[in-house]
Design goal:
The complex is a heterodimer of chains A (114) and B (114). With 114 residues, chain A is mainly β. In chain A, strands 2, 4, 5, 9, 10 and 11 form a six-stranded mixed sheet that branches. A five-stranded antiparallel sheet of chain A has the order 1-3-8-7-6, with no helix packed on it. In chain A, a hairpin with a 4-residue loop joins strand 4 and strand 5. Chain B has 114 residues and is mainly beta. Helix content of chain B is 0%, strand content 49%. Chain B is built from no helices and eleven strands. The chains are: A mainly beta (114), B mainly beta (114). The interface between A and B is medium-sized, with 26 and 28 residues.
Chain lengths: 114, 114
């Protein structure tokens, strides 16, 4: 059974801090790893990673994948209160019917104080 | 282009009643996924549909739950004879293709069973 484990489960920082969120995964037939951000409503897509060692970047957020160690990190620099959310890591299920059939981790709750 | 629309946003049912949750995917998206988020748990895949076809319902309980995505109209997740354990947030997501984990989520329907 596919498994996605995130750490830490929660994190409290102050504005301006840099945070690193972790995701380890055990999936058969790796295809990709995804990060989503969930505020109090719909999860929104952040990154999709398919290749080891290639950093994906969007503003203050960046992510990288290590396929050998089955590990990914999400970095947020110069955090702002608007970054407060649950960050979800996911991978396509080995069931194979669709890449959209995702196994999600339990999420990291990030709280950024002013 | 409107996002994924779900309704109702909140639904209260008594035990034994039926719940119907609707999802209109983004324009041009023919792949629809339903996920359930129980309190204090991560998102769990339920069912994957394309127009008029159920492709994968491996995450859906075999009894009381059904889903459809007719040729015309929204996708519907139906829960018959609801029980307290069905209380959860039900998220719909859509995608233009089945070969990507980049999904567009609706804001969810929160079902409360009294």
């Amino acid at each position: 059974e596919d498994k996605v484990v995130q750490s830490p489960l929660s994190l409290v920082v102050h504005e301006g801090d840099t945070v690193t969120l972790n995701c380890s995964y055990e999936v058969t037939n790796f295809r990709s790893l995804l990060w989503y951000k969930q505020e109090k409503k719909a999860p929104t897509f952040l990154f999709m990673l398919t290749s080891s060692g290639i950093e994906k970047k969007s503003g203050r957020l960046s992510s990288i994948l290590d396929k050998k160690e089955l590990f990914s990190i999400l970095n947020i620099t110069a955090t702002q209160t608007g970054d407060s959310a649950v960050y979800l890591c996911a991978g396509p299920n080995a069931g194979g019917t669709s890449y959209g059939k995702l196994t999600f981790g339990q999420g990291t709750i990030l709280t950024v104080h002013p | 282009n409107a996002g994924v629309m779900q309704n109702p946003r909140h639904l209260v049912r008594r035990r034994g009643q039926e719940a119907r949750l609707r999802c209109s995917p983004m324009k041009g998206h023919s792949h629809v996924y339903w996920y359930r988020q129980l309190p204090e748990e991560g998102l769990k895949f339920m069912v994957y549909l394309q127009k008029e076809n159920i492709i994968d319902e491996s995450g859906m309980p075999k009894e009381r739950f059904s889903a459809e995505f007719p040729k015309e109209g929204p996708s519907i997740l139906r829960i018959q004879q609801v029980v307290r354990g069905d209380s959860a947030a039900y998220f719909c997501a859509s995608s233009p293709r089945g070969d990507t984990g980049e999904l567009f989520f609706g804001e969810g329907s929160r079902l409360t069973v009294l």
